[in-house]
Structure formats: C-alpha cells, structure tokens
Amino acid sequence: MKKGSFIGINFGTTNTAVVQLLNDEQGFRSVNLGEGGEYPFSSIVAIPKNGGSLKFGRKVRSRREELTSEYEIFTSMKSYLGTDREFIVGSSRYSATEITTEFFKSVKEYIAREHKIEIKQAGLSFPIGFTPEARRELRIAAEKAGISVKCFISESTAAYFANRKEGQAYSRVMVLDWGGGTFDISILNLKKNSVSEAAVFGEKIGGDDIDIELARCIHAEIVKKAGSGTHTSFDDMNPVSRDLMIARCERAKIEISETDEEYDLTVMDYGEYGTKSLTVSVGLFNGIVEPIIRSRILKAIDTALGRANLTPAGIDAVVIVGGSSDLAPYQEAITRIFGEDKIILPEKPQWSTAEGAALMQIIGGNFKLNDSIGVLLSDGYVMPLLKAAEHGVGTKVGPIDFSLVEDSQNAHFVFTNDEKNIVFERVNIPTKGFLNEIIKLKAEIGDDQIAKIEICNSSMGNISSNLREVEVNELTFYYDISDLD
Q1: Which residues in 179-205 are b (16+ Cβ under 10 Å) and which e?
Q2: pLDDT at 87 (0 to 100)
Q3: 253 closest CA partner among 196, 330, 355
Q4: What domains lie within the chain, and their CATH numbers?
Q5: Phi, psi for residue 270 in degrees, rounded to 5
Q6: What is the pTM of this model?
Q7: Which residues contact 311 (CB under 8 A, 6 or more apart)?
C-alpha cells in the first residue's frame, strides 16, 4: 500500500466532508477534517448585499435568520454547477463555479488553521448523474482554490471503498447514497482483489426536496389558520421568509429523524402571517417522506437492478450512506425490499464518500471500463469502440472509419453497451448522400470518468462545421484494489 497522506473531498449539496488518510510508520488510519469538531462543513453561503467577503459554514447556518438583514443566503450550490445560473446580490454577480471556488478556499483555510494540514491535492467524488459540464466546473473550482484533482469517482462507489471491510465477505453489494440533493446507486461485483460496477444509476432527489415539501405543507397549515381572505402562496412569499421556513423544516426533519418524536416549529416574522408556531408530528412528517420514497427512490432502485439484470434476491448486502440515510421511512422501505439481515449501516455515513475518494489515490486512478461502449450497426451488431477490461481512464482510440450502407442525407449513430439495454447517446452526422463518403470517429476516456467521442464527415469540406462531439457518463468501471491490502 502506498505511503503518505491522501485527502478525499465529497462536495455535498448540504454538507461537505473532507477526510485525510494516513499511511505511515504508525499504520493506516483516517482522520475526519471537520468543522467545529466532528461535523462536515456546511455548504451554505452568505453573500453580502453591500459588497465584501462571502461567508460559509456552520456559523452561517446557525446565524441564518440574523444574517438575512445584511446577506442573501443560498444553499444547494452543488446543484447549480454546470448551469447558467447567476447569483446577483447588490452590485455583485457570481457564477456557481466562482462561489464553489471561494467555498473550497474557505475549507482549505479552515483546515490549515484548525487542523494544521495544507491541502494541495485531493480525490473528489461526484453524483452519478453529474453532467460533464458540472464535473468540469467542479474541477475548475477546486483547482482555482489551489487543490489539484488527482482522481474522480462516483459517490456511491466511493462510499463502498470506505466500508469495504463490512462488505468484503459478499459477492454482490448494492450501495445506496442518499444525500441532500441526489440519490446514487452502485451495484458492485466483488472479488478478492477487485471491485466492478455491474450497474450505476443516479436520481436528482434528496433531503432538500423533503425540506421544501414540508415547508409547503406547513405554509398550507398557516394559511388555513389565517382564515378567509386573500393570502400569499408559498411560492410568492418574499425569498427571505421562504428561505427561513425551509431552514426551519430542515431542522424539523433532522430532529424527527434522530428522535422519532414530534417537533415544535416556530418561524419568526413570516411575512403577512407574523410569527407562527406549529407542531410537526411524526405522522405528518412521514406523510411527506413516504410518497417521495415510493415515487422516486424505489423506482430508482428498480432501474439500477434492471440495468444489472438482477432482482433484490441477487443482492447479498446493502450499504446505506448519505446525509438522508437515517430517515426512518426510508430505512423501513429498504428493509422491506431486501430484508433486515442484508442492511449495513456504517457508523459515520456522511464521511464514507470522502474517505473513499481519498482511497482512490492509493489505487492510482487506473480504472478500466466494466461495460463496453459500442456503435450499433445496421445489422444489429454492436461494434466495440471502448472495450471492457481493456480500455479505461486515459484511453484514446481512433480515428476509425465508417461508410454509408445506403444513400442518405444523415448518418445516424447510436452508442450503446454490449447488451444493448442502455442507449448512451444518439447523434446525426450530415452527409452528401454518396456511398463512398468516409465518416471518422475517435474517442477517449478522461479522468472524470466521461467518454468523449468526436465524429466528423471528412467528405463535407469544412470539417469543423460538421464535427459532432458526444459525451457519455454513467459508465461502469472495474477497480483493482490489491494496493489497498
């Protein structure tokens, strides 16, 4: 096993975990680099209305109501990476990437000051459904903050590596990582020195969605108690009041999840309704959570099982991690599907993904595809382009020549896996309609675990005008873990 210090970062929608792995003369151990003790960093940001420095972290979360007079508060910044969303406060304008950069800087400074550790490089995790643009912007933000990104890995697979001792006796493990903004699933085939992803799937649903649904429900109760008349809807409340209500509902969610008892919720100066106090019962809370689980979470599990051609009986163990993993209705639903004896609940589920990202640097990032990417030909045959077990991160192939089989104004490319049960992308290439045209294709896999494919018709003259670029994510990989022993 490699010696040294390795940092893993899980930039979360609600919280961000940073873990240091040490392997030296004292042995192998992990250290949670938390905020104010053993807590992950809160991913919340406060932007000053009249200029000045941005504020981050748990102090912002705890002083949220107090800060609203001088700052605008934003959460879930991770969900805006890869989008055009801008955050305009006063005369200042920020992109999600710029805010994330400043957040990473604040995390670095805190860890240097409080933990006496300087972060120069790290492994990063990402949601399975994270777009190529979002992954690029995550890298840009980290590197602008002075953190060299050594490897990327999906959040759910990273979480397994951190808990591999609990799962190593099994042949097939499912990891369910439900955080503040996403639900990620990895189905893994295990051998002594290897882990291969049989299927991965991500759904954009998280604890934030529960907070918002609960806030809408509480708002409706307030409107009912206000009596007849014209009242402001939740969506039309001023942003500060709406944000504070969501924050109160997040606190209610956490308390009910931890205690299984009702929660007395008070929101101060809630617009036209004034100060209101209500009791959030366990029944009301479960009534919000259970439909989300039925309509989104369980369907995502079915999709992942389908991609792996499995039923729940084919899963030996289920590792449950993430910030939303302690919700009682969620744990009950998973237990009903797989059985109580298959459930593995790590002691510190919010730190698992960051620890797994740190471990990936020991493996070295030389990950191979576990499922080929090919071109579906007209006769139904899949011509391998990027091959399982042979090609992986850093691979480049091509150019490969294709020709038309019939006169057409377009060449239609379908990129699929060997089993033809997943269509990754479709793209049309303009043609002149002559059978002797040559279409060239080349591909590579970046360290962000995305396959980048370029296709062009060299017979069309201006190649740049008919060049098409395709990016494929949700790929499955094979990991050699012999270096972890």
Answers
A1: bbbbbbbbbbbbeeeebbbbbbbbbeb
A2: 94
A3: 330
A4: 1-163+347-363 (3.30.420.40), 207-289 (3.90.640.10), 368-482 (2.60.34.10)
A5: -85, 75
A6: 0.88
A7: 305
